[in-house]
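Please fill in the sequence for the structure shown.

STRUCTURE ENCODING:
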């Protein structure tokens, strides 16, 4: 068992306790607006502090890239953290949100963990060791193509709403081919569900590294494909991601590609 993944698991569980304890005080919670449709609560900050503190206790020399506190430390080992993915859901009592923690070593993702706080499921992977949910091996779905597939996505909002026209054309094209589209509002969980075969594919624009880091490793360790919109590896930088089992990924890429517009250059 990877000891670093064990620490990530404990950090996520500790953060989850904070998140759950505060559900009943949502109406009294201090909320700060970071930007258009972009909010942070005191729970986000407390959960992030708990995660960093737990990891730092075991690995004081490691660096961090976290949603609320940004970059800290200097090391080739960097923990990428989203303490509460799905903050808007959380604020509304919509029970779809998660903790996401990944470890990058020399620029390569080595460990990833996503904790579904309400379902109490832990999706995790270490490079070369496969992917699991609650200790059981998972694989991407065997769906043979877009016809009959269930696809996850996220609507453009915040600063990436400038791509709304391109996105709507992609959405229309996918709707015509797939069995259904889902937009639960927590990208980390969407990616975890692709890895577990609950979704057959996923695409979104304008995500942040902490939204994607853990999920992309888990999908790849579960036998799936993850790339940017050009089939490359810049998704953590561009925020544009497409994922799925190999056959669905291929058809999803083919379906959205004619509608990328200026997104295709990113």
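FILLED IN BY: designer on duty
SEQUENCE:
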């Amino acid at each position: 068992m990877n000891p670093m993944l064990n620490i990530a698991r404990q950090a996520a569980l500790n953060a989850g306790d904070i998140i759950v304890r505060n559900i009943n005080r949502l109406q009294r919670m201090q909320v700060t607006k970071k930007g258009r449709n972009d909010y942070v609560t005191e729970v986000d900050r407390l959960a992030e502090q708990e995660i960093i503190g737990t990891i730092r206790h075991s690995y004081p020399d490691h660096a961090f890239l976290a949603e609320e506190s940004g970059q800290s430390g200097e090391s080739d080992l960097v923990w990428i953290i989203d303490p509460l993915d799905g903050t808007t859901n959380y604020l509304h009592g919509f029970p779809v949100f998660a903790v996401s923690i990944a470890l990058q070593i020399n620029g390569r993702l080595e460990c990833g963990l996503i904790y579904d706080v309400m379902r109490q499921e832990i999706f995790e992977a270490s490079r070369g060791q496969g992917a699991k949910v609650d200790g059981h091996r998972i694989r991407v779905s065997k769906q043979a193509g877009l016809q009959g597939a269930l696809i996850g996505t996220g609507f453009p909002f915040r600063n990436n709403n400038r791509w709304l026209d391109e996105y709507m054309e992609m959405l229309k094209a996918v709707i015509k081919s797939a069995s259904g589209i889902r937009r639960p509002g927590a990208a980390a969980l969407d990616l975890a569900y692709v890895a577990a075969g609950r979704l057959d594919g996923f695409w979104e624009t304008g995500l942040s590294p902490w939204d994607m880091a853990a999920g992309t490793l888990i999908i790849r360790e579960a036998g799936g494909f993850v790339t940017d919109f050009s089939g490359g590896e810049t998704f953590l930088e561009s925020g544009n991601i497409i994922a799925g089992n190999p056959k669905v990924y291929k058809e999803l890429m083919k379906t959205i590609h004619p509608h990328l517009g200026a997104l295709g250059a990113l």
